[in-house]
């Protein structure tokens, strides 16, 4: 990637792509189409705000990942949140309040951040935080959920506030999903999807792909099944190793190329669905987008981290503004030091170079 790579232009084009294709996917849903028309105007304004900050020497990303709780009602095999002690069965300690999250959302709006991914733990355990998100129609909030806590109150909330979009985690078929997430989880999340579909509410699916399961997740029969369920968005999430023993599961270049090629096909075939991959094509984006290049992470206690899979922090939003967080020593060292642009064999570059990340904290 050359020195003339413009990260803000890349991010702006990414936002435009998401909004444009989301509008195509919701043409038959008047409420959603109306919201997206309004959101597209907000997104253009946000792009201008980010560029203004860029001109002042502050790089603002498009995405914020907000892990709003350390609690979860499931024990999924290979969960990096539990492996990193970011999720547990203990009563949460010192987690951010609903008001504090509301302040973060407001700061994000003022900085031009267009998307805030609500994650956990299980984020739907924090109805107070999700309710705060309704106050910011300028921001789109994908809510990554295991689908087991849907109820009538949430359905009404999602109907009134189209900037909240549940994304249900599914591993494939019933056997694969229950094998990783627990017996009976598949039937619960399918029921939640069915409730959303009957209410004509937009929702999506999140699938985690590895070296071993990608073939089954990109097959026509699985995608068509999601389509019939009513999914309008499908996120392909690259598996991140939780330890050295699981490194071999991480996708390599071959799997990434296979996914990119298949996504082109799926986007042509399913014109009213939106297909996204995370972290995406690092060759196109000039490297990893963590540490504020394209996104950053705030954990449930307020620690600002490069990425959910890289749980290192030198600053907390309880003591600093989001702008100060993005200009923190750790984030700037990662962005400016070339580590995010480094080649890696598979999985996450920050996982592969975690010793170097830890040294940055000690410097």
Automatic annotation (TrEMBL):
<dbReference type="GO" id="GO:0003824">
    <property type="term" value="F:catalytic activity"/>
</dbReference>
<feature type="domain" description="Radical SAM core">
    <location>
        <begin position="58"/>
        <end position="276"/>
    </location>
</feature>
<dbReference type="InterPro" id="IPR007197">
    <property type="entry name" value="rSAM"/>
</dbReference>
<keyword id="KW-0949">S-adenosyl-L-methionine</keyword>
<protein>
    <submittedName>
        <fullName>Cyclic pyranopterin monophosphate synthase</fullName>
    </submittedName>
</protein>
<keyword id="KW-0479">Metal-binding</keyword>
<dbReference type="Pfam" id="PF04055">
    <property type="entry name" value="Radical_SAM"/>
</dbReference>
<dbReference type="GO" id="GO:0046872">
    <property type="term" value="F:metal ion binding"/>
</dbReference>
<dbReference type="InterPro" id="IPR058240">
    <property type="entry name" value="rSAM_sf"/>
</dbReference>
<keyword id="KW-0408">Iron</keyword>
<dbReference type="InterPro" id="IPR013785">
    <property type="entry name" value="Aldolase_TIM"/>
</dbReference>
<keyword id="KW-0411">Iron-sulfur</keyword>
<dbReference type="GO" id="GO:0051536">
    <property type="term" value="F:iron-sulfur cluster binding"/>
</dbReference>
């Amino acid at each position: 990637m050359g020195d003339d790579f413009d990260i803000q232009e890349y991010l702006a084009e990414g936002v435009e792509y998401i909004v444009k294709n989301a509008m195509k996917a919701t043409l038959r849903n008047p409420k959603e189409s109306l919201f997206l028309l309004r959101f597209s105007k907000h997104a253009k304004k946000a792009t201008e705000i980010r560029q203004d900050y860029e001109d002042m020497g502050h790089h603002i990303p498009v995405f914020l990942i907000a892990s709003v709780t350390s609690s979860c009602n499931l024990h999924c095999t290979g969960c990096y949140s539990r492996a990193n002690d970011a999720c547990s069965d203990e009563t949460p300690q010192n987690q951010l309040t609903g008001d504090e999250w509301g302040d973060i959302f407001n700061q994000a709006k003022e900085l031009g951040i267009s998307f805030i991914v609500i994650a956990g733990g299980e984020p739907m355990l924090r109805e107070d935080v999700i309710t705060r998100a309704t106050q910011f129609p300028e921001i789109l909030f994908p809510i990554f959920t295991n689908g087991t806590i849907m109820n009538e109150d949430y359905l009404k909330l999602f109907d009134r506030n189209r900037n909240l979009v549940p994304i249900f985690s599914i591993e494939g078929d019933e056997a694969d999903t229950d094998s990783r997430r627990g017996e009976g989880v598949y039937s619960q999340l399918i029921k939640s999807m069915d409730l959303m579909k009957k209410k004509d509410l937009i929702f999506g699916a999140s699938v985690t792909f590895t070296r071993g399961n990608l073939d089954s997740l990109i097959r026509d029969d699985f995608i068509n099944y999601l389509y019939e369920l009513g999914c309008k968005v499908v996120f392909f999430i690259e598996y991140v190793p939780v330890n050295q023993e699981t490194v071999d599961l991480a996708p390599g270049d071959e799997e990434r190329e296979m996914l990119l090629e298949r996504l082109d096909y799926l986007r042509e075939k399913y014109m009213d669905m939106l297909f996204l991959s995370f972290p995406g094509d690092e060759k196109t984006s000039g490297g990893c987008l963590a540490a504020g290049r394209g996104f950053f992470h705030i954990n449930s206690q307020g620690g600002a981290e490069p990425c959910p899979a890289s749980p290192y922090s030198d600053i907390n939003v309880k003591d600093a503004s989001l702008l100060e967080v993005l200009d923190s020593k750790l984030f700037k060292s990662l962005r400016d030091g070339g580590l995010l642009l480094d080649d890696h064999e598979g999985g996450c570059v920050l996982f592969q170079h975690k010793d170097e990340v830890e040294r940055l904290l000690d410097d």
